[in-house]
Amino acid sequence: MERIAEAIGGDIAQREQEEIQQALQLDLPVIAGEPIPILYVQMDGTGVPVVKKETVDRQGKTEGQPAHTREVKLGCVFTQTAWDEEGFAIRDPDSTTYSGAIETAVDFGKRLYREALKRGWHRSKKKVVIGDGAEWIWKHVQALFPHARQVLDYYHCSEYLHKVAKAQYSNSAPAQEWVEATLTRLYMGKVGQVLGGLRRMQPTSDEALKVIRHYRE
């Protein structure tokens, strides 16, 4: 069973690479079919445990310690045509296809680009890429999805706001109050107000200045 699974996996991987190379070389607009109102591409990365041979000569997160995990990159493509009663977007049921691999950011970007083309990227009226703000994600978004609207997902945005509050106010009541008020504005879609508040914020320390400057830009 193991040998058969490896053989099938190797065949699938080879065909995927052929499709990826074809997509990158030809990249011809596919206009057959109905227009797609909004097409989303989302990507992220997370560590997964692996056997020791997979981490040989790989540096861990702690200096001087070997790595115990490998980063698997995950992505999905889906459509959206409806909104709920509060005006929030609803993902179309059964519209999501997934991609995942342990490979370089460059290779994974190409893999997800191929999936987006298969799903009708050129037929979509509005193109959106959702990410966590990691440099590798936006770097490849610019290269492979240059005309897409870039969106920082709510979860990671709230995480970054907590970091700003901790640097500015430490772990105090004002920090919690600021986070709650700012997240409420963010949830209501008042992104401009959130960014404006960050730009007007007067740092209370060098560390706060560094963190605030990083996230408001």
Helical content band: 40-55%
Rg: 21 Å
| Count of discrete alpha- or pi-helical segments spanning 4 or more residues | 7
Largest sheet: 6 strands, mixed
How much of the sequence is in beta strands? 15-25%
Average pLDDT level: 86
- State the order of secondary-structure elements, H for helix, E for strand: HEEEEHEHEHHHH
User: Which stretches are poorly predicted, pLDDT < 50 over at least 5 residues?
Assistant: none
Secondary-structure-derived class: alpha/beta
Count all strands and give the number: 6
Describe this protein's structure.
The protein is an alpha/beta fold and 217 residues long. The chain has two domains: 2-54 and 67-152, no CATH class; 155-216, no CATH class. The chain is built from seven helices and six strands. Strands 1, 2, 3, 4, 5 and 6 form a six-stranded mixed β-sheet that branches. Helix 3 (135-144) links the parallel strand 5 and strand 6 (149-152). Helix 1 crosses helix 2 and helix 4 runs antiparallel to helix 5 (173-187). The radius of gyration is 21 Å and the shape is globular.
Considering the chains and any ligands shown, give keywords for the structure.
217 residues; alpha/beta; 2 domains; 6-stranded mixed β-sheet; 6 strands; 23% strand
